[in-house]
Design goal:
By secondary structure, this protein is mainly α. The chain has a domain of about 110 residues. The chain has seven helices and no strands.
């Protein structure tokens, strides 16, 4: 383990390396998008829902398709914004509950990156929710255009929107487990 690797396990390393991209690289949380339980389940659910929606969409006249998808996207955008509020509130509660004693003990044990990866998960999921909102909004706006769309284009957008929605939803639910693990960790350090 190099000196850089050893130092990143102490809180002092992150006094200067405290940007989103620094946290993302050091915690390797980006792997969750393509290599996690949530990613696998989201992929399966996205294939199933895209298949069902594609079957429905391909049997409806063009204008009816756009109207139906716009209605569905309106619901998804509202749900994503609600999840973003949940994540922000959860992060505020978690950060407020982590005490100085806990941080000092973890940093001295050179395990700070582990704690950071737990807390950073909220930030990461918040950014995923932001990207999902942008994807949904862009799709919404594209559907408002008066053009007839290629079925392959529709299938790709159905899958992309489904995947980011399911990944966001499942990742937000998994944050509940993160909250429980942090509570147990706090109890351990208090005793």
């Amino acid at each position: 383990m190099g000196i850089h690797e050893k130092n990143k396990n102490k809180i002092e390393f992150f006094f200067e390396k405290n940007r989103y991209i620094d946290f993302l690289k050091n915690t390797k949380t980006y792997k969750d998008i393509y290599f996690s339980k949530e990613a696998l389940i989201s992929f399966i659910l996205a294939i199933i829902s895209s298949g069902i929606l594609f079957k429905v969409v391909s049997g409806v006249p063009t204008q009816g398709t756009s109207d139906m998808l716009v209605s569905l996207l309106s619901v998804l955008i509202g749900a994503i914004v609600g999840l973003l509020g949940f994540v922000i509130g959860g992060l505020a509660l978690i950060v407020g509950s982590i005490g100085r004693k806990m941080i000092m003990i973890i940093s001295e044990a050179e395990q700070f990156t582990e704690l950071l990866s737990i807390v950073f998960r909220f930030y990461f999921i918040g950014s995923v929710l932001g990207v999902a909102t942008i994807i949904h909004l862009m799709t919404y706006l594209i559907l408002l255009l008066p053009y007839q769309f290629n079925l392959i284009f529709v299938a790709i957008f159905l899958f992309l929107n489904s995947y980011v929605f399911f990944f966001s939803l499942l990742s937000s639910i998994m944050l509940l487990g993160t909250c429980i693990r942090l509570m147990l960790l706090q109890y351990k350090f208090d005793n």
